[in-house]
Design goal:
Number of helices: 13
Number of domains: 2
Structural class: alpha/beta
Strand order of the largest sheet: 3-14-12-13
Helix content: 25-40%
Low-confidence stretches: 1-31
Strand content: 15-25%
Mean pLDDT: 87
Length: about 425
């Protein structure tokens, strides 16, 4: 069953009763009561810690309810699965430590006097001492657990749901997508099934559970980086029409998951932190029970897409889960995050054109004449220096003056002699 009611038009004058639709197995279910809605429409549920925040959410329920779910407040998987189950059965979700039931939780159970309590998770998550203590608050206490978080999720689907045409599939490795799916699932009376989002295909147990409950369509919360394409293909092959709802990040995914709610009236819209799970868990159960969309917020602002989605929904109340350190007043009032500062355009590095290195002119090959005033056969060109005239003249073999010239230097060729500053004779 799901929480349903009409909201009085005189919202500012009195408490707003959101009645639970009666379950098939229960004659009457006490109503949920939301406090007087402020002028800005924002109701903040926040306690000193996650356990108190869950109690604050639970206090929207009147005493005598049929069921309370209790899950670990120290990790998110079991509580995420429990939120969808609690929403469907019309009960709150309270959190506990493994080996100690927080005093505020015991006090709230005393107030609620539930007909039954469902403990979610094995003794490694919620110990036997806490389980036994819970028996003092209700005559009927059940434990729903599996060997893994995924088995626990399957067990909760079997425990809380009968036939369900739709089901949401979300990763059990991270919390944001499954959290956002709870409200959307509640609107359809659908379970939220946690899977190992990195797996190549859905497990046989998951496929069998979906078939057992008569599921025809599956909504996949998150992109392929969260729930693989192989899981999507496996669901399709098993006959469950998949509809993937994913965005560029967790905030955009929450908008996509809840896109069917946009532009339509709702009893409330919920805002939960996208960066931390504890305060959001109990709110997910309430959102799911109301069939109200649940969006994710940054600490100090919301994304443009989130602001647009929330604004499009005609909801009299905006329920913010957590204190100002979790979701600031600015974020609660839908202050849009400033766009990221663009990275400065790098100044192009101009690579200087290297100055060409001149190829050095090789020094002329020169040797000294032999002691008898002759040039060797390897360097037959005679270089003669006339210091009084300031001339340097070379002579080649066979020229008129060659045999009469006593060289100062010898060269291998006329070109080598010219490199050394010599010239040919004028006649």
């Amino acid at each position: 069953m799901r929480l349903r009611s009409a909201i009085s038009s005189a919202l500012a004058a009195a408490l707003v009763g959101l009645a639970l639709a009666p379950a098939a197995s229960a004659a009457t279910v006490p109503p949920v009561t939301i406090p007087e809605i402020p002028a800005n429409g924002i109701i903040r549920l926040a306690g000193d810690d996650r356990y108190q925040t869950a109690v604050d959410a639970s206090q929207l329920f009147a005493p005598g309810i049929s069921v309370v779910f209790v899950a670990s407040g120290q990790d998110f998987p079991d509580a995420l699965s429990a939120a969808a189950a609690a929403a469907h059965l019309g009960g709150p979700l309270l959190l506990t430590k493994k080996d100690e039931l927080p005093e505020v939780v015991g006090t709230e159970l005393d107030r609620l006097q539930p007909q039954s309590i469902v403990v979610v998770g094995g003794e490694g998550v919620i110990g036997a001492d806490v389980f036994d203590l819970l028996k003092t608050y209700s005559d009927k206490v059940d434990r729903v657990a599996g060997g893994t978080r995924y088995d626990t999720s399957l067990a909760l689907v079997d425990f809380a749901f009968g036939d369900a045409e739709n089901a949401y599939v979300a990763s059990g490795k991270t919390f944001p997508d499954a959290l956002a799916a709870t409200g959307a699932a509640g609107a359809l009376g659908a379970p939220v099934l946690l899977v190992d989002g990195t797996a190549a295909a859905p497990t046989d147990a998951a496929v069998a559970a979906l078939k057992r409950h008569g599921v025809k369509k599956t909504y996949i919360a998150g992109g392929t980086g969260t729930v693989t394409a192989g899981i999507e293909d496996g669901l399709a092959a098993a006959g469950f029409t998949p509809d993937r709802r994913g965005g560029a990040d967790r905030y955009a995914t929450a908008v996509e998951v809840n896109r069917d709610a946009q532009g339509k009236p709702a009893l409330a819209v919920f805002l939960a932190a996208g960066s931390t799970f504890p305060d959001a868990l109990a709110g997910a159960a309430i959102a799911g029970g109301l069939g109200a969309p649940l969006y994710l917020s940054r600490t100090d602002c919301v994304t443009e897409g989130t602001a647009a989605a929330v604004t499009s929904i005609a909801a009299p109340a905006r329920v913010v889960m957590g204190g100002e350190g979790t979701i600031s007043d600015a974020a609660a009032n839908l202050t849009v995050c400033a766009p990221p500062t663009p990275a400065p355009t790098p100044t192009p590095t101009v690579t200087p054109t290297p100055t060409p290195t001149a190829t050095p002119t090789p020094a002329p090959t020169v040797v000294a004449p032999t002691t008898d005033g002759m040039c060797p056969d390897s360097h037959p060109i005679k270089g003669n220096i006339n210091e009084s005239r300031g001339t340097k003249i070379y002579h080649v073999p066979g020229s008129n003056s060659y045999s009469q010239t006593i060289p100062e230097e010898c060269f291998s060729s006329a070109a080598e002699a010219e490199k050394a500053g010599y010239r040919a004779p004028l006649n």
